[in-house]
Amino acid sequence: MSSLKIKSGDRVRVIELPPYVKTADPMPMLRPAKVISLGEEGIVLNTRPAGYWAIRFTQGAFLLESKYFEVIESAE
Q1: Where in 1-76 does DSSP place strands (E)?
Q2: pLDDT, tens only, 24-52
Q3: Strands ordered across the beta sheet of 69-73
Q4: How far is CA 34 from the centre of its chain?
Q5: What residue ranges do the domains of the chain occupy?
Q6: CATH of 11-73, one of 2.30.30, 3.30.420, 1.10.10, 1.10.1760
Q7: What does DSSP assign to residue 58?
Q8: What is the DSSP letter of 53?
Q9: Coil, helix or strand for 66?
Q10: Is the dihedral of CA 59, 70, 45, 64 positive or negative?
Q11: What integer pLDDT is reported at residue 76 of this predicted model?
Q12: Cβ–Cβ < 8 Å for 21, 64
């Protein structure tokens, strides 16, 4: 995944669930991973420190590391 350039607007799919997720709010909160589902698609909002990506899903925006998702469509 590191060789692939991820950018805002890219569509991504969850390929592995983390033990928990952080919300992408100004004051992030931990949530159980069940707020997103395996195979759920979202849109990359931006990059965050420590290798996290803010991604908009149906249940809200959450922070995920790139090992938990794959790019399915690149914004051009």
Answers
A1: 11-14, 20-23, 30-32, 41-48, 52-57, 60-65, 69-73
A2: 999 999 999 999 999 999 999 999 999 99
A3: 30-32, 20-23, 60-65, 52-57, 41-48, 11-14, 69-73
A4: 14
A5: 11-73
A6: 2.30.30
A7: T
A8: E
A9: helix
A10: positive
A11: 61
A12: yes
